[in-house]
Amino acid sequence: MLLVTGGAGFIGSNFVLQWCAHTDEPVLNLDALTYAGNLANLQSLAGSPQHMFVQGDIRDSALLNRLFAEHKPRAVVHFAAESHVDRSILGPEAFVETNVVGTFRLLEAARTYWSGLDEAAKAAFRFLHVSTDEVYGTLGPNDPAFSETTPYAPNSPYSASKAGSDHLVRAYQHTYGLPTLTTNCSNNYGPYHFPEKLIPLMIVNALAGKPLPVYGDGQQIRDWLYVEDHCAAIRRVLEAGQPGETYNVGGWNEKANIDIVQTVCALLDELAAAPDRGVRDARSGAPLGRYAELITHVTDRPGHDRRYAIDARKLERELGWRPAETFETGIRKTVQWYLANQEWVAAVQDGSYRDWVQTQYGARA
Ligand code: NAD
Ligand code: TYD
To answer: Which residue is closest in CA terms to ligand 1's atom 17?
Structure first.
């Protein structure tokens, strides 16, 4: 069986759903259910013997040791993390706790368990660490995309804590021989994305007639990947990746934020026309013609990385992975998913979500 951490979050839940659709192998899903964890994402697996859920913290060594001893996983796929850059700016400590200390404790528990395996099981064991392209820092407009050999230069508390976890994973392979794999992926989007991140925030704000807050000039570039493509890449790396290697995962979709927001607005104009739905501007109360009327430039994020771009050629060359979705197909599916799942959105917009929106955007010019 697989031990998946963070499998109730955005990417983790997409991974668990995809895994269960493609294989019969059971999944033990360990998740603390922070604000970002949501068991509703896994509702379609309710009652399935293939999926076992444990609510717990990756910093809890006693729990980890017990889970390894009882369930004897053949592999760990480690998603659990604090993942939002803006939250890391306002409160970095949780990022060090979960991303650095938590990954360390998970590595220690995995090493203890793995050390006691026979030689064949030891060789077959895998610890797959899911990381981000943000560890490489920021690119200028004409710089080549990040490759696996680009030096680490993290700029936010989030990316620094992920870089710290990547270094620990590397050290456990180098020092103890633990068979690790690391994936560094670009920005994901798709179903079950918590609406604090750019794309889902813009969709849910637009449908409510609320401002669409674009940081600074909106010319920052991200390289977008549909979440199911990321999950397929992780399955491929788990299956055929070389222990000790890192693999960059990206969508070959560099886009400026303002263009992403314009695209979301155009899709909503097509699929959920504002006048037809009676959507009004939440500030002025005036009937809304086009969703793009809601775009509002606000104060930039401190230390905002200007451009990320991933060179995913190693993964294609060595393991034959390429994304299946283009940005155009993936973003259309995503907008359609949010329109069809407004109950899911309403359920995650609880009191703590509203507090976050007030803290983050309330004082922004
Ligand atoms: P997310 O914030 O949606 O989900 C994180 C999950 O981890 C949640 O279910 C949360 O409850 C759980 N968690 C948090 N702290 C925990 C702890 N101490 N113990 C146990 N569980 C805990 O994040 P995501 O966007 O799904 O990202 C998953 C992983 O992928 C992260 O490691 C992130 O760094 C990485 N990643 C994300 C992106 C992206 O665009 N979202 C891109 C590249 C890499
Ligand atoms: P985000 O989804 O937070 O991902 P990351 O910071 O990990 O790349 O943000 C994506 C981009 O969108 C980033 O350049 C910041 C920008 N952004 C806004 O302009 N407005 C917003 O309200 C948010 C949440 C993000």
So the answer is: 57
